[in-house]
Design brief:
- This protein is α/β, with parallel strands linked by helices.
- Among the domains are: about 100 residues; about 40 residues, no CATH class.
- Helix content is about 30%, strand content about 20%.
- A hairpin with an 8-residue loop joins strand 11 and strand 12.
- The longest helix has 15 residues.
């Protein structure tokens, strides 16, 4: 988004004095680094979520030295997602950021810290705040987390073609509830919104004196969007798609698989040689 206007602006301001030296236009040697007659590029609205540790310091340098001198970021909305900020606002900053992201549909997030017990004590926090990522994905109806391989010219990898990774962005352990319990009976019951009879999901006896009970669910409504996004990317890059589940053991993953492999979806997104 920023690269083209910036590179055009700089190229127009560079004059070659000889093969050995390059002379910049005087206007490009000091802030606001804009050539006469040229307007500063105004970035569109975006939610910027700052984190902490090394990436935060790196992004601070990038913003101060490379972005803000050349680009007007006045339309960006800024949210401090550091542990101390979340603690001071009782996590209101997280809820505000999620609302803003849903409104603007454009978000940049630095890596954040989910504090350990030692960090809670070290930072003087009220409690160990959970990872903000789950709340963000749920609030934005997160479809997928894309993590692709990075290919750099001159660096040889163990594979030549790009590998595209997609992971369902909601549900699972990120939204899990848990409790440490002792020996006893554990019952999981579902109560439908329509007022119909409750459904017994699981009933088991815990014989150990020390147990951890973890409860989570996998939402499936947006899997069709994930599948079409994934297949479309594979089609565009001429990449063979693989849908990876362990549905032979984890039977609840059958629904995810079935939605991804729906015949009409495959027809819409192109023809593939599918492997499982």
């Amino acid at each position: 988004m920023f690269r083209k206007p910036l590179s055009l602006q700089l190229r127009r301001g560079i004059t070659t004095a000889s093969k050995e030296t390059i002379r910049l236009h005087p206007a490009l040697t000091k802030a606001p680094y804009v050539l006469p007659g040229h307007k500063t590029f105004v970035a569109p609205p975006m939610v910027y979520i700052s984190g902490e540790e090394m990436t935060h310091y790196t992004m601070k340098l990038i913003l101060e030295q490379w972005i803000k001198p050349h680009i007007d970021t006045s339309k960006w909305e800024w949210y401090d997602m550091s542990c101390k900020s979340r603690d001071a606002t009782d996590d209101k900053v997280l809820h505000d950021a999620v609302k803003a992201g849903k409104r603007l549909c454009s978000i940049f997030k630095e890596p954040t810290v989910t504090p350990s017990a030692a960090q809670v004590k070290e930072m003087g926090l009220k409690k160990g705040w959970p990872s903000p990522n789950g709340a963000m994905r749920r609030g934005w109806n997160g479809i997928t987390i894309s993590r692709d391989t990075i290919h750099i010219e001159g660096v040889k990898l163990g594979f030549d073609k790009p590998v595209l990774f997609e992971r369902h962005a909601v549900g699972g352990e990120y939204g899990a509830g848990w409790k440490a319990v002792g020996a006893g009976r554990l019952v999981t019951t579902f109560f439908p919104d329509d007022g119909s009879s409750p459904v017994l999901c699981d009933d088991r006896v815990l014989k150990d004196e020390n147990n951890v009970v973890v409860t989570y669910h996998n939402p499936l409504d947006n899997v069709k969007d994930l599948a079409e996004h994934f297949f479309s990317r594979c089609l565009a890059s001429n990449t063979v798609p693989y849908i990876v589940t362990k549905k032979t053991v984890f039977k609840w993953q059958e629904g995810f698989w079935t939605i991804c492999m729906h015949p009409q979806r495959l027809v819409r997104t192109g023809r593939f040689r599918l492997s499982a």
